[in-house]
Amino acid sequence: MLKIEGLRASYGAIEALKGVDVEIYEGEIVTLIGANGAGKSTLLMSMCGKPKPSAGRITFEGQDITGLPTHQIMRLGIAQSPEGRRIFARMTVLENLKMGAVVTDPRFFDEDLGRVYKMFPRLEERQNQRGGTLSGGEQQMLAIARALMSRPRLLLLDEPSLGLAPLIVRQIFQVIREINATQRVTVFLVEQNAYHALKLAHRGYVLASGKVQLGGTSAELLGNEEVRAAYLEGAH
């Protein structure tokens, strides 16, 4: 479904990605783990068109999307729930969800709204409440639901567990599993909580200093001594 080859991207003089290669197959959950500053969020943002790669290639369902404007990439069936949620704080929950649906056929809106409300009942209860007044967990639910309103085939999730209580994290990860299993949405998950991410995903990659250092099945990475020492000890 998605192939990234030799991707390089920079912020000014700082090269954040130094030749990244990643493959994602339809129907998978693939996770990308790594320390702060490894380049994880930059990779997701480059996939969405900003920053534009300085070298390399991104192919989605056989189409070269390298350097395409963000709105064109979204219309192809890719959606992102960004790090830090970045909902529209002054808009209501319902208005945020409408923003997520702007790239889809309006005929599907009620059906899609019902689906995300079933997945996140709290959002239906809060639908007329401003996004900025929601709790952190509710805002994360809204960010994911807003992305789902665009009917994506590939969902990019950037640190969905960041700053959330353990109970809410478990709920969020269960929803990600449900999205993948029942809606057949392919998921690319960037996550610092490496243990839970690898338990959820089918495969994973380890990113360090802008390069992929390791890749394999989740079981292989969970059993890798280097991965355990660097990212897993004490996490669970």
UniProtKB/TrEMBL annotation:
Database matches in SUPFAM superfamilies: P-loop containing nucleoside triphosphate hydrolases
InterPro entries: AAA+_ATPase, ABC_branched_ATPase_LivF/BraG, ABC_transporter-like_ATP-bd, ABC_transporter-like_CS, BCAA_Transport_ATP-bd_LivF, P-loop_NTPase
Pfam families: ABC_tran (PF00005)
Alphabetical UniProt keywords: Amino-acid transport, ATP-binding, Nucleotide-binding, Transport
Entry's Gene Ontology BP terms: L-amino acid transport
PROSITE patterns in alphabetical order: ABC_TRANSPORTER_1, ABC_TRANSPORTER_2
CDD domains reported in the protein's UniProt record: ABC_TM1139_LivF_branched
GO molecular function, one term: ATP hydrolysis activity
Domain ABC transporter per the UniProt entry, residue ranges: 2-234
Highest taxon of source: Bacteria
Membership in a protein family: Belongs to the ABC transporter superfamily.
Annotated PANTHER family: HIGH-AFFINITY BRANCHED-CHAIN AMINO ACID TRANSPORT ATP-BINDING PROTEIN LIVF
Protein name as it appears in the record: ABC transporter ATP-binding protein
Organism for this UniProt entry: Oleomonas cavernae
